[in-house]
Design brief:
six-stranded antiparallel β-sheet; flat; four-stranded mixed β-sheet
């Protein structure tokens, strides 16, 4: 297993020919055979540099590793390393992969590997007995995730060195995507606390919380702006980008309407807005999704997300702006869905 302790950040994908397509061409021609032979022989030097160059050609900052497979002999993982801006790239790499075979299958994020916590490892020159790791998991005020404090007797308070290990431990316990999905904050602590639990019990704690949450649905909120004008917000809950990792393009579609004295839609305008929204959602289909709508001061802003590399999805929203008088569409690259974070 290589590359798991590398947490470099980079500038994203390179210009030119599609590097994902180039990777899979190389894989079909030479890569699979090279990696299979080297992995079976345990000859890391034979493939580490080659693989690292190929993965970095897709996007600097991507990480990779090999593991013993479940259905195949080996698993190749190309991971964003927790970087939201790279998670869509890893997903596209995965979706372009060939069907799994007897030798290799592929994943775009590190899956859970809890057996790693039954060992000792050397991390940045220091040895940690992971079997002695404990965690304190506090449910957030919103009730949709955890603040997790990680304790190990080997921790010294040198958080610049130890924070990366804390995150890695959680990825081994939950898997990379579930860390993003359920862990709101990670703290490293040098002293154990009351109510901590063995680290191995954290996945069950997460599963218990997940089982209590309602199915995805729309939530209607209302409030007032600074000048006292009312605002209505309808938002999809839970609002989690990690459940839709390819949708990294935010589109704010601003739709003016016939407003009453409070700046809210009159009945006829309300019908027109609903019809437009329904038509856009239908036209987008699986290419994108509406996640929120805010209404105030004579304007409804529809917040959509789609795949930035799928021009057809973007065209649906641009067409609405062309066809509807005074409607505007503004597109912003937004992996991690920061544009709608206030609605979460």
């Amino acid at each position: 297993m290589r590359g798991i302790f590398s947490r470099r950040r980079g500038s994203g994908r390179r210009a030119g020919a599609d590097p994902i397509e180039a990777f899979w061409r190389w894989w079909a021609d030479d890569g699979e055979e090279l990696l299979t032979e080297a992995t079976r022989a345990g000859d890391f030097d034979a493939y580490v540099d080659v693989m690292t160059r190929r993965v970095r050609a897709i996007a600097r900052g991507l990480e990779w590793e090999t593991r013993t497979g479940t259905d195949a002999e080996h698993t190749l993982c190309v991971s964003s390393g927790g970087d939201a801006s790279l998670r869509p790239v890893a997903e596209r790499w995965y979706r372009a992969s060939p069907p799994p075979g007897p030798r290799w299958d592929f994943v775009p994020a590190r899956s859970a590997k809890p057996d790693m916590l039954e060992s000792s490892i050397t991390y940045r020159g220091r040895t940690f007995d992971l079997r002695r790791t404990r965690v304190h998991a506090a449910v957030t005020r919103a009730g949709d995730g955890f603040i997790v404090s990680v304790y190990n007797p080997g921790f010294t308070g040198q958080w610049d060195d130890e924070y990366g290990l804390c995150v890695l431990l959680l990825e081994w316990l939950l898997g990379e995507d579930d860390v993003e999905r359920w862990v709101r904050r990670v703290d490293c602590i040098a002293r154990d606390v009351v109510d901590s639990i063995p680290a191995a019990e954290l996945p069950a704690r997460v599963a218990d919380l997940a089982s209590t949450l309602p199915a995805p649905d729309w939530l209607l909120m209302q409030g007032t702006l600074g000048a006292g004008d009312p605002i209505l917000v309808r938002v999809l809950r839970p609002l989690r980008w990690i459940d839709h990792p390819r949708f990294d393009l935010h589109t704010a579609l601003r739709v003016p309407f016939d407003a009453d004295e409070q700046g809210l839609p009159r009945p006829a305008a309300l019908d027109d807005l609903a019809a437009l929204e329904d038509s856009l959602v239908k036209a987008l289909g699986i290419r994108g999704m509406l996640v929120a709508a805010e209404t105030s001061r004579g304007v409804r802003t529809l917040h959509f997300y789609s795949d930035s590399e799928d021009q057809n999805g973007r065209d649906v929203l641009d067409a609405a702006a062309r066809d509807q008088r005074a409607v505007t569409a503004r597109h912003t690259l937004d992996p991690g869905w920061k544009k709608v974070r206030d609605f979460a």
